[in-house]
Design goal:
The mean pLDDT is 91. The strands form 3 sheets. Strands 4-5-7-6 form a 4-stranded mixed sheet, with helices on one face. The termini are far apart. It has helices at residues 4-14, 20-30, 35-47, 73-85, 121-130, 141-147, 177-186, 196-208, 213-222, 226-239, and strands at residues 18-19, 52-55, 58-60, 92-95, 111-116, 135-137, 154-159, 166-169, 172-175. By secondary structure, the chain is α/β, with parallel strands linked by helices. Strand 8 (166-169) and strand 9 form a beta hairpin. Helix 7 packs antiparallel against helix 8 and helix 9 packs antiparallel against helix 10.
């Protein structure tokens, strides 16, 4: 009996990325197989981690590491506290130190970012401030540049963009790499990581980690900077 899983993995080893149509044509040429069966094998291989979905209908053999944000005990405690107070709100929580592996020129960032529904941001900010925490609500570039030391612990409360690419890790919602890359280019509080350093961050991310480009561009579209992100990717690829 034909080992289609191995045939697909052999094909993946010779093709950096591929789609269902070209794989189907290859396998059908070897021995008759239905498109539905090929799709089924791709799903199973993706679920097992032997393949990765890198775009709409595109697959690749994993060659890069996954960018995963692991919440700290403090972030988990903060998440649980906020969920008790606002059980129906969503909270995406992470620390700015997670950006360090992407940076070329290391700039310390010890800010805890809390993103939640826009209508809940003020209430969350007021709760944190009243509890004696150093917190800022949607801080502007000028405020950060003139008054905030990013190396010191503080909390930034920001709106959570709908349909943001996030994932659950140890019960806490954290951003995916795709979300982080777009936010770094868009948000005022990341002004110091934009322009030349932004290109370095994107280049490091593309070379070190697996990135779902369709997810990246879909989120960039929601944030109104799809063309800017496409230009950055094209610039990096043309220099490789």
């Amino acid at each position: 009996m034909k080992n289609y899983s191995q045939s697909i993995m052999d094909y993946a080893a010779l093709h950096p990325n591929f789609g269902l149509q070209e794989l189907y044509a290859y396998l059908d040429g070897e021995a008759g197989i239905s498109r539905q069966t090929v799709s089924w094998y791709l799903t199973k291989l993706t679920e097992s981690g032997r393949l990765r979905r890198i775009g709409h209908g595109l697959y690749a053999k994993p060659t890069k590491q996954e960018f995963v944000i692991i919440p700290t005990d403090e972030e988990r405690t903060l998440h649980d506290e906020l969920k008790r107070l606002w059980p129906f709100a969503h909270f995406c929580i992470y620390n700015g130190s997670v950006i360090s592996p992407l940076q070329h020129h290391l700039a310390a960032n010890n800010i805890t970012y809390i993103e939640t529904e826009r209508e809940a941001t003020s209430a969350v900010f007021n709760h944190l401030r009243d509890d004696g925490r150093t917190a800022y609500l949607r801080p502007t570039r000028d405020l950060i540049y003139n008054y905030i030391d990013l190396s010191q612990p503080a909390i930034f409360v920001k709106p959570l963009i709908t349909e943001s690419p996030t994932l659950q890790n140890e019960g806490v919602m954290v951003p995916t790499l795709e979300k982080l890359l777009v936010d770094l280019q868009k948000d005022q509080d990341f002004f110091y990581l934009q322009e030349a350093e932004g290109l370095n961050i994107f280049s490091n991310a593309l070379s070190l980690y697996t990135i779902n480009e369709s997810r990246l561009l879909r989120y960039a579209s929601r944030r109104g900077i799809r063309k800017e992100i496409e230009t950055i990717i094209q610039s990096i690829n043309s220099n490789d």
